[in-house]
Automatic annotation (TrEMBL), chain A:
InterPro entries: ABC_transporter_permease (IPR051393), MetI-like (IPR000515), MetI-like_sf (IPR035906). This is Sugar ABC transporter permease. One of its GO terms (biological process) is transmembrane transport. CDD domains: TM_PBP2. It is found in: Cell membrane. The chain crosses the membrane at residues 25-54, 84-109, 121-141, 172-193, 230-252, 279-302.
Amino acid sequence: MSDGIVAGADAPPPKKRRRRRHSQWTGLIYVLPALALVTVFFIVPLCMTVWMSLHKWPLMGLPRFIGLDNYERLLFDKSFWSSLWFTVQYTVVVTIALLGFAMALALIVQGQGRAVSAYRTIYFLPVVTGFASAALLWVWLSNVDTGLFSPLAQDLGLTEGRVNILANFTPAFWSVIVMVVWKMAGFFMVILMSGLQSIPADYQEAARIDGAKWLQRFRYITMPLIRKPFALALILCVSGSMLAFDQFYIILSGGPQNKTVTAVYKIFNESFVSFRLGYGAALSMVLLVILLVLSVLQLTLLSDRKDK
Amino acid sequence: MKALLGGAAIAAIALPGLAQAETFSLWVRSDGSEFMPKLVDAFNAKGEDKAELQIVPVNELVQKYAIAAAGGSEPDALSLDLIYTPSFAQAGQLKDLTEFAKSLPYYDNLSKAHLSVGAYDGRIYGMPFSADASVLVWNKNLFEEAGLDPDKAPTNWAEIREDAEAVAALGDDTYGFYFSGNCGGCNIFTFMPLVWASGGALFEDEGAKATVTTPQMKDAIEFYRGMVEDGLVPAGSQTDSGSNFFAAFAGGNIGITPSGSFAIGALNNQYPDLEYGVTYLPGKDGGWSSFAGGDNIVVSAKTEDSKMPAIQAFIEFAYSPEGQKILAQNGSLPVRDDVAEQALEGLDARYMIAAEAMAKGKTPYSPVFNDLINSLNGPWVTMLNRAFYADSGEEVDEAMEEAQDEMQSIIDSSR
């Protein structure tokens, strides 16, 4: 009976069936370690976070069950919503900048020229730097008294005197964007490059023979054919940016005047500075749901419908 | 025979510490990494009880302690940044030390500021341990170059301003004044005394009420803002969240800066060529005040009673003239004023000014100090950063009113 269900209505010959059953169990054994890891490091902590978010849970002292109070409180927490709004703005700007730049890099290095592999290495190098070290480097470069950016701006005639770029919102914000693009573009370049290289050369050649210009070929051949790697890059970029923390914590400490506190930074502050772990957990749950919705949306919009 | 047995029994009850040497664990924040190991070594060398010392990074101490406490592995005793004592006591983490503290013959000579934040609900949970007072330092080399009397300390805000202007006039890379404009901890330590000395306060009613919007606070902010506006302060101060707090003055191109007594030892050791003076942090029209900082020693609530005699012996050793001397020679001010002079004997005379500042210093009392003051995004530093570099007086008022509201709401929701 159960065999019938497993094998389906049009049952294959018995010999083959046994082998398939066997391979199903082997499959389970193969995924078991991964399953265990996911359970221990994702499902269990997730359940604990949900449980925690229903408590007033100070760092010291005993937790107290308060039901949905934390969620009610966050509805009226202006600083949480403004941190979330800032995170969204950052995500939009950085995603456009990052993917645009990565696409340009990928187009430059997709060929086979002699210098190309050197370029690939150079563009990819910043990716292996940790966010924390890259951010510290940026802090040092931005220092108005001892850094490099201020005299550079002066020499280029952009400013008259010394300029503390981290002291005002707009230059501070863009300096973080530049840092992130510098650091992450190589990573997305690799993803997009793999997509570009999977396009058969004949397609481009045929189009060229038909008289299509570069822009037309890019629009009608390249873009549709790298849709999947592009979707992957987009989802990684959006979910990564929505979780941004290190760069804003280290370079700006949320300043000037808390205008660059991201959602995760707010969660960090609630949990580990103010020691309201329960409230921090509730905020995390909200962020998780938002990320989930965003990812599902992107997947639906970008998945190739004809494949289904 | 019977009498003999009875005598032995009484001795055993009265002197449980003698029964057997105890070992207890002790944590200190990394700020104490100079004096604490030396004090512990001297105590352990006495050969009876032993302290097992662990140094914890200053920014992680509260978290590390809380996590250890949740797992039941908290240290027996802890040298804790004094401002955290109320919040630890409120969370029920600390042992009541009232009897022990009051039994000490020199109880009245212990640092009042430390004891004031060591108390919660009328009981003593934290006892003075190490001390660091805020002072004003000035660069004598630059004063001389600027034609000022290098031995004359400024005694009010107008004099600070005049001296700063003279020093700044020396040239492009010389500045009159420095402060870390984006550091809450630095400014409660060095800026708030200017307000106190002028008659203002930040909290009232044991931390239940925030009093940000006072004329004294506004005057003090305007004093700093004026110096920023006139270019007497380097531009980097606006984004300095504390990393340059000491280093800026040590660089030798800053005329005057508020700092802490820790700077005396650090400057003497690392910058022997820099001639500097130490004075009190003055009020607007004179007078002075200081932030009495440092550590309280506390005992975890779950520490076994059998370990108490050893911990008490250690605290008493730290309070002894010998202990106070070890602390003083390694960068901490004495916390017992009847032996302070003796402990500081033979040291840099400038320590005496810091010790004096310490004795009359204040420490704000709040169980939510971290939230309000030390947090990088708390209302205190947000207000100061906005107000010090504000373009207009209205912006200053706005920043102060916002801080007042936010501080009060944080205090209220914590109760």
